[in-house]
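Q: Got a minute? One more chain.
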Amino acid sequence: MKKLIILLLAISFFSLPQNAFGQDSITIQDLEQFSHTFSIEADGFHGEGGKILSKAIADAHITMLGEDVGSKLEHHFANALINELDQNNYKTMVLETGDGAGQLINKMARNSELTSQKVKALNQKYLLEKKGGTFVPILELRNLEAIQSIENAHNRGWSFLSVGVEPWTSYKMLADDLYNNLLPNNKQTYQDLYQETTAFLDQQYAAIEAHNSNEVHKLITQLTSAKCFNDFLDKMTICEGNRKTVTAIQQSIKYWGMYGNAQYYEKNVWSAKQDKMKLAEDLKNKHFDFKKDKLFVKMYRNHLAKSMAVSGAFGVGNMLLEMANYHGNESLSIGVVRRFYEDGDTVKDLSQATDGFNKTYKDLVALGKKDEWVLVDLRPFVKEIYYGNYIQNFGLYKMFTRYDMLVIPKTDSKATANY
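A: Always. Here it is, folded:
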């Protein structure tokens, strides 16, 4: 036993970083040298942080914005970012939607219907009220501020690509879209099947009680075994323009089937692979030239990590970093985190939160300020801290290996629901 203890101690000793001895713990004062305040004005970003951000955007060919969920100011930042990107010849935006929803967004754009009013009507038509909240068919269009930033890009002549999975809440909307795309004679042929399918979907949506694995499992089980639903998908491919949407629905059912069976890791790895394949195909079809063209990607923060994401998969962020490097260009990955936010009449401080994310990244979250935007430039941080005389912190390590910059809004609030 004594020999075993000595052996374990020796292994621990030699597995420590070479410069571990004599290192200092990282303090908030150490991090503040990489933290810069900025403001967002009508004509762009201002302040020291704004200068750093604007230069990084000008130097990059691929800019990625990894968002939080439900934040009003993150969309305000995205809107200002689109203005800045437009000045630097960006004209293509990737949204985190399934292919069916992506085609619908592009159709609305072509028909001048990509407005908050039209989207609100769409959300109201298909929303589901369940335990835990209200669910809309296209999550990217849930909030007013998010729609405004997408509308801004459209008004500047941008085109949209889509990467992601359709939510289970979208099937009724997509079924309507598939049927509406048919020629009049085909509509007449499949009218009864369409009506049977939509009635079936209404019944299944009424039965589901909440968004959790057990309830979603029940829904997906019903869908995969329903003859009318699967016959409908098959018949809708008579229209060539429907085929991508049908594939997107089928992939969505596979994704939510894994979720319902609690196969979370498998789901994450599979969906990350599908996202990368889909993006590569769309960029090829668009004749996107990685040497000269520019790309803006806006997705959930975890999907745009430069390395392995929290989900355990290498996602779109990692792929685009490597593609930019391969073609001799720069990529820029920006993650949005928040510290102060309004909750009713009180302002909460997430640097004091005990949830998994904020507990892990509390050192960086603590750099946020109530009345000012903060940009944390993690690029020089790597050189000074990672290779400097400091003890590594798990949360800091994960953050600076996943993002080039963090943006911490001033006191934030919930985005405005548009339904």
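A: DSSP finds 19 helices and 15 strands in the chain.
Q: Perfect, thanks.
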